[in-house]
Design a protein that fits this description.
This protein is of the alpha+beta class. It contains 5 helices and 4 strands, in the order ααβββαβαα. It has a domain of about 100 residues: VSR Endonuclease (Endonuclease, Chain A).
């Protein structure tokens, strides 16, 4: 059973953002302060990644554990409106795979970070991105 009234639950769910989450802002500010320039929620790139480095063809997605189904097989499922949530989250998982596949076939390097990864291991996430940016820059200068 849900802890909140239907009205309160509706209000809570309306407040969930598709862009500009705390984790997205944290990562983007950290990268910006390190001198990396990117585009946010670039509509010209398939899947509308949270951050894109178009010249280096690097797309970064920051996924919420609930909405993108982290550990979906073993995780405790929603208790209310089960059919809706199961269908929605499974479709999100499927769409994420489709987007990854399309971008990779188009020559993009795709990163998907869970919001808790950014929250707990920001330096590790930044290191991964910087390594890829450096490799991509070296690759473009060699060609």
């Amino acid at each position: 059973m849900d802890r909140h009234t239907p009205e309160q639950r509706s209000k809570n769910m309306r407040a969930v953002k598709s862009k500009g989450s705390k984790e997205e802002i944290t990562l983007s500010k950290a990268l910006w302060h390190l001198g990396h320039r990117y585009r946010k929620n670039n509509k010209t790139v398939y899947g509308k990644p949270d951050l894109t480095f178009k010249r280096q063809k690097i797309a970064i997605f920051i996924d919420s554990e609930f909405f993108h189904g982290k550990d979906w097989e073993t995780r405790k499922k929603p208790q209310t409106n089960v059919e809706f949530w199961e269908k929605k989250i499974l479709r999100n998982i499927e769409r994420d795979k489709e987007v990854n596949e399309f971008l990779q076939q188009s020559g993009w390097l795709v990163f998907r970070f869970w919001s808790t990864q950014i929250h707990k291991n920001l330096t590790e996430v930044i290191s991964t991105i910087e390594t890829s940016l450096a490799a991509a820059k070296n690759k473009t200068t060699i060609q």
